[in-house]
């Protein structure tokens, strides 16, 4: 559904993304990563800290991180050294 150029209300309406940065975001700098880690430690958010560290180390997307189960990481009471995750967006394994 489009808008008519003859409608004066269309010319007054501001675009939804006016003034926002569009496109890819810049990567986190090392000091940003440490600031986030410090914040999570200060507020005792252990689960969030573990997910953040896993995200940084594995370079997985958020949707792939939240699908990981304990059984994917722990085997017979010990933590696995390696695990394979099939990425949702690309369908390719991430090592």
Overall shape: it is elongated
Individual helix count: 5
Radius of gyration: 21 Å
Major β-sheet, in short? 2 strands, antiparallel
Low-confidence stretches: none
Physical arrangement of strands within the biggest beta sheet = 1-2
Decide which structural class fits the backbone: mainly alpha
Write down the domain tally.
Answer: 1
Strand content: 5-15%
Q: What's the quaternary structure here?
A: single chain
| Measured distance between first and last alpha carbons | 44 Å
Kindly state the percentage of residues in helix: 40-55%
Mean pLDDT, rounded to whole units? Answer: 83
DSSP strand count: 4
Taken in chain order, the helices and strands follow as HHHHHEEEE
What does this protein look like?
The protein is mainly α and 95 residues long. The chain has one domain (26-94). The protein has helices at residues 8-12, 30-42, 46-58, 62-65, 70-73, and strands at residues 74-75, 78-79, 85-86, 93-94. A two-stranded antiparallel sheet has the order 1-2. The chain has a two-stranded antiparallel ribbon with strand order 3-4. A hairpin with a 2-residue loop joins strand 1 (74-75) and strand 2 (78-79). It is elongated, with a radius of gyration of 21 Å. The termini are far apart. The relative contact order is 0.08.
């Amino acid at each position: 559904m489009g808008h008519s150029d003859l409608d004066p209300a269309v010319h007054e309406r501001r675009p939804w993304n006016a003034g926002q940065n569009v496109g890819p975001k810049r990567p986190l700098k090392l000091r940003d990563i440490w600031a986030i880690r410090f914040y999570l430690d200060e507020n005792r958010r252990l689960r969030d800290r573990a997910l953040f560290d896993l995200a940084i180390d594995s370079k997985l997307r958020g949707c792939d991180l939240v699908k990981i189960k304990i059984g994917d990481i722990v085997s017979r009471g010990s933590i696995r050294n390696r695990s394979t995750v099939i990425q949702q967006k690309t369908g390719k394994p991430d090592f």
